[in-house]
Amino acid sequence: MHYHTARLIETLYAAENVKVLLDDPDILSKQILNTCRDPKPQGIGVIEAPRGTLIHHYWVKETGQIEKVNLIVSTGHNNWSMCKAVDSVAKTYITGPEIHEGLLNRVEAAIRAHDPCLSCSTHAIGQMPMVVEMFDPSGNLIQTVTRG
Question: Residue 42: which H helix or E strand, with range?
Fold first, then answer.
């Protein structure tokens, strides 16, 4: 749940370094533009964003047309930590046989802590849509709550 704090530290660091980057001659150089007329058959890019690491892998035809793309998005990287956070919320806040709206809000907060852009990337507007199911120790479904 400290991802937000880490993001704030990264944001402050980025803001403090804007002037340095804007004065960097390599960034202002015309050599940084890709004017290559001979595209390679494959290309890989990796970028770090507030949501996490995004990995792109492209295969290109000789004509320059993209033939195949493989994207490894941050949701995949964040999945384990999101699951652990939701498990922690459930163990902390479920005290009886019913799921209340407050629990859904805490589950949403736990997910957003690890993947703040998930609702935008999945085109969810407003509250994050979710289905929460509660099972008893024998594996029998007790309650299902759907939101969104």
Answer: strand 42-49
Report pLDDT digits (tens) over 99-145.
Answer: 887 888 888 888 888 776 666 666 666 667 788 888 888 999 999 88
Which residue range(s) make up the domain with 50? Answer: 38-72
Report the alpha-carbon distance of residue 90 to residue 124 in Å, rounded. 23
Q: How many Å apart are CA 75 and CA 54, to the nearest integer?
A: 9
Q: How many domains does the chain have?
A: 2
Helices (H), 23-127: 25-28, 74-93, 101-114, 118-121
Return contacts of 122-131, CB within 8 angstroms, 24+ apart: 124/148, 130/104
Report the predicted TM-score, pTM, of the whole model to 2 decimal places. 0.60
CA distance 61 to 41: 6
Distance separating alpha carbons of residues 117 and 131, to the nearest angstrom: 19
